[in-house]
Design brief:
The complex is a heterodimer of chains A (127) and B (229). Chain A is an all-alpha fold and 127 residues long. In chain A, 81% of the residues lie in helices and 0% in strands. Chain A is elongated. Chain B has a seven-stranded mixed β-sheet, sandwiched between helices. In chain B, α1 links the parallel β1 and β2. In chain B, α3 crosses α6, α5 packs parallel to α8 and α7 packs parallel to α8. The radius of gyration of chain B is 16 Å and the shape is globular. The termini of chain B are far apart. Classes of the chains: A mainly alpha (127), B alpha/beta (229). At the A-B interface, α4 of A face β3 and α3 of B.
Chain lengths: 127, 229
């Protein structure tokens, strides 16, 4: 098994693509499209991508050492698990928000009932 | 003197039956009640308002679990000792209310379920429905070691301990079986008594074939989880 050779062009294209992704995350953060917590996670993700792009040669050697002859397979595998973890994290966030929404809906209903009872007891007609 | 029992009636699009259910309830029960209008999009809200029926209206539909939890929160805040779930579609006979209250007070149970199968009743449900009920009976017997002949019955009374528990955490959909696994895990006592159930007084069941499949899978999964953790 031979170590896969990576051409300079591939390296530069990868660096360009990951840098563009990083710029996109920074842009979305600057425009407040992402909240601080979410922006932080994506920033880590994007910076990690850039670091990997700069170290493709080392990653290639690492892949070879652990028995993966085609280095992109290693990247796909790592990215797959990372994306899966992100999905689980975001589902947790959605679940938490669902709970909060349910709580708020119940509170609104209860307060509305209290207001109705109060207006009734005071003989005020609700508009 | 205000009674210490609150009847919680979750209602979603029950314009055909809600008035009949409340009229029948008022005739045969001395207890307080609250209709939880679960974001109905038919005339349920108008009927509740015009007929001056005690109600609390959720601005959006939360599902049966969210509606019931709203009722439990109300019971907790108003300091009720017992809360009874009564369906708005008229299937639950209010003449059994007294028996439920007596049972919970005399047996010392934390929850008493009105069962169609505890003793022989006139109930004749579809074979698929009965098979589903038997499946959940067997599931609870295996995972929680409790024998509840009618685990899907919504006609149930709970005491203050359970009100405190449910107002904090209650499943969003198809809660009946899942909460039994949870109560068993926490060491709460559940008892059953015989009740008669009527046919629906209006509307149709919300459980379609697809939903029934989801119901079985979801309830099985969560009941196992609740019985372990």
């Amino acid at each position: 098994m031979e170590v896969l050779k990576i051409s300079g062009t591939v390296e530069w294209i990868t660096i360009l693509a990951t840098s563009l992704f990083l710029l996109q995350v920074i842009w979305l953060t600057a425009k407040n499209k992402l909240t601080d917590k979410q922006a932080f996670i994506w920033l880590l993700f994007a910076i990690g991508g850039v670091i990997v792009a700069f170290g493709l040669t080392y990653l290639n050697k690492l892949a070879f050492k652990i028995g993966i002859s085609y280095m992109p397979t290693l990247i796909f595998m790592l990215t797959f698990f990372l994306v899966l973890s992100l999905l689980v994290y975001h589902t947790i966030v959605i679940s938490r928000q669902e709970r909060h929404i349910k709580y708020l809906v119940q509170e609104i209903a209860y307060l509305s009932k209290q207001m109705d009872d109060l207006t009734k007891s005071m003989g005020i007609k609700k508009i | 003197m205000p009674s210490n029992v609150l009847i919680i009636i979750p209602a979603y699009n029950e314009e055909q039956s809600i008035l009949k259910t409340i009229t029948s309830l008022k005739k045969s029960s001395p207890y307080d009640y609250i209709v939880v209008n679960d974001g109905s999009i038919d005339q349920t809200q108008a009927i509740l308002k015009n007929e001056n029926i005690e109600s609390i209206t959720l601005p959006i539909n939360l599902g049966i679990g969210g509606a019931m939890q709203t009722g439990y929160k109300y019971a907790k805040r108003k300091n009720y000792d017992y809360a009874i779930q009564l369906d708005a579609d008229g299937q639950h006979d209010p003449s059994d209310l007294e028996a439920l209250v007596t049972a919970i007070q005399t047996t010392g149970a934390d929850m008493v379920i009105g069962s169609r199968f505890y003793e022989k009743t006139s109930y004749r449900g579809a074979i698929t429905r009965r098979a589903g009920i038997y499946y959940f009976y067997a599931l609870l017997k295996v995972i929680s070691g409790i024998r509840i002949t009618d685990p899907t019955s919504g006609y149930r009374i709970v005491n203050r301990r359970v009100i405190d528990l449910f107002e904090k955490d209650y499943p969003v959909d198809y809660p009946e079986v899942e909460v039994l696994a949870k109560l068993a895990k926490k060491g709460y006592k559940v008892h059953e008594i015989k009740v008669e159930m009527n046919d629906r007084q209006g509307g149709s069941s919300s459980i379609t074939h697809v939903k029934a499949f989801y119901y079985i899978i979801k309830v099985t999964f969560f009941s196992i989880i609740r019985s372990i953790f």
